[in-house]
Amino acid sequence: MRIVIAEDDPLLREGLALLLRAEGLDVVAAVDGPDALLAAVDEHHPDVAIVDVRMPPTHTDEGIVAAVEARRRRPDLAVLVLSAYVEQAFATDLLTRGATRLGYLLKERVGRVEQFLDALHRVADGGTAIDPDVVAQLLTRNHPDSRLDRLSPRERDVLAVMAEGLGNAAIAERLVVSEGAVHKHIRSIFGKLDLAPTDRTDRRVAAVLHYLEDARRRV
């Protein structure tokens, strides 16, 4: 796996590079800004870009803008965005632009090495990885007209874990229920969100994007 890191904090940038190299991963570039990120993507053709949300010069949304541009240049690029805290508008804007090979984690998750590496590999393998704290905030905002209000508390729990990018077996393990129960809850979620079977739509992705888009309208 070839990785580019874009992080303006030198300690975190070098710490990430050391961690990933210790895991046998190929960090081809570690840069400190959005322009350097795009140059590294063009030069090295990485599999994954790990990108900080806030970078110079304004420390607002440079990382998100650069991540979107990097994906435009290389649609097969996996992007794992890191943020110091939950930034709902940025998270939903990035994730609703494409449902695969994308992740959004809080920086504190890096210290939980096993979880961080699991999210990195999941994104690199074509899935999604959304920080549980981001998912929780998106799911708990009040909106009386949302179809999410139709879901039972347990169905909301299942959708929350599904939104992190986990499969049925991992959801069952997290919630301490059987895979059969998870399958039943997911079928119910699809029904309550009016997601009929179709060859053109992945209903798991559609369920996740439904609440992300709903949250973006309310941010």
UniProtKB/TrEMBL annotation:
Keywords: DNA-binding, Phosphoprotein, Transcription, Transcription regulation. Residues 2-122 form the Response regulatory domain. Pfam families: GerE (PF00196), Response_reg (PF00072). Gene3D superfamilies: 3.40.50.2300, Winged helix-like DNA-binding domain superfamily/Winged helix DNA-binding domain. It comes from the Bacteria. Residues 144-215 form the HTH luxR-type domain. The modification 4-aspartylphosphate is found at residue 52. CDD domains: LuxR_C_like (cd06170), REC_NarL-like (cd17535). This is Response regulator transcription factor. It comes from Pseudonocardia humida. The lineage of its organism: Bacteria, Bacillati, Actinomycetota, Actinomycetes, Pseudonocardiales.
